[in-house]
Design goal:
Oligomer: single chain
Largest sheet: 2 strands, antiparallel
Strand content: under 5%
Number of domains: 1
């Protein structure tokens, strides 16, 4: 056991859980894209797609961990998911961390997410979903 991960609350995940989380990742990603397609100007709806990208990224990270470790993080802190993911894919962990840093502002902030952050969120999410799909 890795002492760094012993305190991370996890849930055991087999094939059904991996497939279910992957389906959710793909649904959130597709929903973000559909929402952006509905509006000519991303600035009008940037917060909603970023929130969906974050959820897609979290689900994809769960799949990556479940595939490699047979479990994924399920605690009160998303940073636990980043730590667990770093054990199997440090690059994916950085992508997830990038998304998580946008979560509060996109979902609860008063000012809109910038177009630069929207594009960054999309790229991070696509990479995570790709990694989870392979």
């Amino acid at each position: 056991m890795n002492p760094k991960h012993d305190k991370i609350k996890t849930v055991t995940a087999g094939k059904a859980e991996r497939q279910g989380r992957l389906n959710k990742a793909r649904q959130f990603l597709q929903s973000a894209e559909d929402l952006r397609d509905l509006y000519a100007d991303d600035n009008l709806v940037a917060d909603a797609p970023v929130t969906l990208y974050v959820h897609a990224g979290i689900a994809a990270a769960d799949v990556i961990c479940a595939h490699s470790l047979g479990k994924y993080a399920q605690g009160d802190s998303h940073q636990d998911a980043v730590k667990l993911l770093a054990a199997v894919d440090p690059t994916a962990a950085k992508l997830l961390d990038t998304l998580l840093h946008m979560k509060t502002r996109a979902g609860y902030g008063f000012d809109p997410i910038s177009n630069t952050k929207l594009i960054q969120a999309e790229r991070a999410t696509r990479s995570l979903v790709e990694r989870a799909s392979s």
